[in-house]
Design a protein that fits this description.
Strand content: under 5%
Shape: globular
Number of strands: 2
Strand order of the largest sheet: 1-2
Largest sheet: 2 strands, antiparallel
Length: 263
Amino acid sequence: MKELFYVLGGTGFIFMMTMLGAAMVFFFRKKTKPVFQTIFLGFAAGVMIAASVFGLLVPSINIAESSGCISWLPAAAGFVLGVAFLFGLDKAIPHLHPNLNLLEGPHSSMKRTTLLVFAVTLHNIPEGMAVGLSFALAAQNPADTSLYFAAVALALGIGIQNFPEGAAVSLPLRQEGMKVKRAFLIGTLSGIVEPVFGILMVLIAGFIQPAMPYLLSFAAGAMMYVVVEELIPESHLGEHSNAGTIAVMSGFLLMMILDIALG
């Protein structure tokens, strides 16, 4: 019960940050400059890289080592499975990358706006998994308070990058002619998979607790797939690629500081 309470709080926070970001559609009615999208995507990539390493892979290695397993094996195996999972979703779900104007996945006659939302929803799945597993790990080890603070740091970092991510959904929808309230609603709902997958991970971890190192690295692999496949390439398009690079470094630095300061 405590695990679900923690996870609802953590994933609820990152979902709320997505909603606040989507609310930017009420303030920015005109077309935003491409550099803002570049910065948003780069920052999200940096946060997710650091979260994958410090918040997921390192704990996975530490748990495996303390239990007497080969320390790198669960981390490597889970990572590969996480990459394969997102790769499969990437191929199975039709979605649109707006900066590239590129349709991926199976052919679909769905609206452009729907495909755009699917693309962002794919990003949010591993984020919900990561926060859910981190709080589940903290709840399973109440004597180690550092795990709780590490989970809080992870939720803060992902929540911060979810703010521009929510805006990155609602603003393009508005600029394509959608009504403001509808663009806000769709931008908000793009983050609903975060609490759903967070709770799902807690339920799985509760039944198979020895698999926690694999689950943590699974979430890390899924997040790194999103970063390498989509976020970094899209943050380095056009003449503002330097801004994207700086944003990646800034996101990584912020997440690293949060993890060390609170962990």
